[in-house]
Write a structure and sequence with these properties.
about 20% strand; alpha/beta; three-stranded mixed β-sheet; globular; seven-stranded parallel β-sheet
Length: about 240
């Protein structure tokens, strides 16, 4: 297959391109650095030419109230170009529980992206993943004040980016799901405890204080960011840290 990977130079995209090419497909990475812009539409028709599948891994540059406009415009442009180019399968990466946290601008934006894809003219697949292990350092930095990190005890089920990329790659070469596949890490942690594990492993002297009001995950209710019935990835957090 020829597969156009939008956002193909990023964390997940670069691994998806590598996986697909190793499996004998022709995966072509597209991004602003290769002359493709999903907002202006520049280069999209050329990127879609001859593609059997498009995998859209582009992301909003911000997580705030501007993010819905990014996904609206980018999906409108991508769907139009893919339809014009005769693409037969459109894949996106989303978030487990994304439609359960309307308080977060970014989650509302990703839910909008899913809705636009499902309503569009092309057979599709949505891969929802839990929070990436790779982002834990950023989560810690958001609520650090001096030597203290404040985190809520929100249940999360972290997944390694290589496992996300493998799941996206598998879905991309399969028949369109016309629905959603959830992929999750093998363990559930309270976010504050995951913070402590991370800092201890790194020899970081900061202390984690449990604060139900701290950071973006404070608004999450219950265990909606986990899924005991999803496809389980194999990489455990302590092994990933090591």
């Amino acid at each position: 297959m020829k597969i156009a990977v939008m956002g193909g130079t990023g964390l997940i995209g670069s691994q998806v391109v590598k996986n697909l090419n190793a499996a004998g497909h022709e995966a072509v990475p597209h991004s602003q650095s290769t002359g493709v812009d999903v907002i202006s539409g520049r280069g999209l028709d050329e990127a879609m030419a001859g593609a059997d599948v498009v995998v859209n891994l582009t992301n909003s540059p911000t997580f705030d109230e501007a993010s819905p406009a990014f996904f609206q415009t980018s999906m409108d442009n991508l769907l139009a170009a893919a339809h014009k180019g005769g693409v037969g399968h459109f894949v996106i990466l989303s978030i487990v529980g994304v439609d359960q946290v309307p308080e977060l601008d970014y989650y509302r934006a990703k839910a909008l992206q899913e809705q636009l894809l499902a309503a569009g003219p092309i057979p599709y697949s949505i891969v929802r993943a839990t929070q990436f292990m790779d982002f834990m350092d950023a989560v810690l930095s958001w609520t650090t004040e001096g030597d203290t990190v404040r985190l809520p005890a929100t249940p999360i089920q972290p997944i390694a980016s290589k496992d996300v990329a493998a799941a996206v790659s598998d879905v991309a070469v399969g028949a369109p799901l016309n629905g959603i596949r959830n992929i999750v890490g093998p363990e559930v942690f309270a976010l504050d405890e995951l913070g402590r594990i991370t800092l201890t492993h790194k020899g970081d002297s900061r202390t984690v204080v449990t604060d139900p009001t701290a950071g973006m995950f404070a608004v999450v209710k219950g265990d909606v960011l986990t899924d005991k019935n999803a496809h389980l990835a194999t990489t455990r957090y302590t092994d990933w840290l090591a």
